[in-house]
Amino acid sequence: MHPTHLILSPGTRIVTRNETNPIGGGAPIPGGAVGAIIDSPADAYHAYKVRLNDGREAMLRRAEFSILTAIALETGRAKDYAQILQFIESGALDADKLDEILKRHGLVEKWERFGDKFLKGDS
């Protein structure tokens, strides 16, 4: 479940959860496709416009994609760290899934350094 008050900003990297139809028709976009938000809705009841890495675009509701926190961690810019902190504070991160992804991509040590720097003293 995702909090309804958190509207993700353009540029947030995402991955589709299921097959979806692109804007303008054509072959379906498979689940697991990676892209970025290019336009955010005014509220949690409307869809995000996303551009996938292959250039196609789709309208997706928040439940239809996941956020690529591991990419934000790997990129490591101040705005990426701020985005990760926002996800943590909102409860939008699934810790078990994140641990699995961090291990798969060799980012556990970087996550620990992030935690040491930004999460010390948080419970």
Q: Percent range for helical residues?
A: 25-40%
Number of strands: 5
Number of helices: 4
> Largest sheet, order of strands side by side?
4-3-2-1-5
CATH level-four homologous superfamily name of the largest domain:
SH3 Domains
Question: How would the global form be characterised?
Answer: globular
The mean pLDDT is 85
What is the end-to-end distance? Answer: 21 Å
CATH class categorisation of the largest domain: Mainly Beta
The Rg value, from CA coordinates, equals 15 Å
Order of helices and strands: EEEEEHHHH
Annotated CATH topology of the largest domain: SH3 type barrels
Domain module count: 2
Largest sheet: 5 strands, antiparallel
Provide the CATH architecture of the largest domain: Roll
In the predicted model, the low-confidence regions spanning at least 5 consecutive residues are none
Percent strand: 15-25%
Structural class: alpha+beta
Strand-helix topology:
Elements (H helix, E strand, L loop, with lengths): L12 E4 L17 E6 L8 E5 L4 E4 L4 E3 L1 H7 L2 H13 L4 H10 L3 H11 L5
Antiparallel strand pairs: 1-2, 1-5, 2-3, 3-4
Helix pairs in contact: 1-2
Descriptive terms for the model:
33% helix; single chain; 18% strand; 5-stranded antiparallel beta sheet; 2 domains; 4 helices; SH3 type barrels; 123 residues; alpha+beta
Protein model, in words:
With 123 residues, the protein is α+β, with helices and mostly antiparallel strands. It is globular and about 50 Å long. The longest helix is centred in the last third of the chain and has 13 residues, at 78-90. It contains four helices and five strands, in the order βββββαααα. A five-stranded antiparallel beta sheet has the order 4-3-2-1-5. A hairpin with a 4-residue loop joins strand 3 (48-52) and strand 4 (57-60). It has two domains: 13-67, Roll (SH3 type barrels), CATH 2.30.30.40; 69-118, no CATH class.
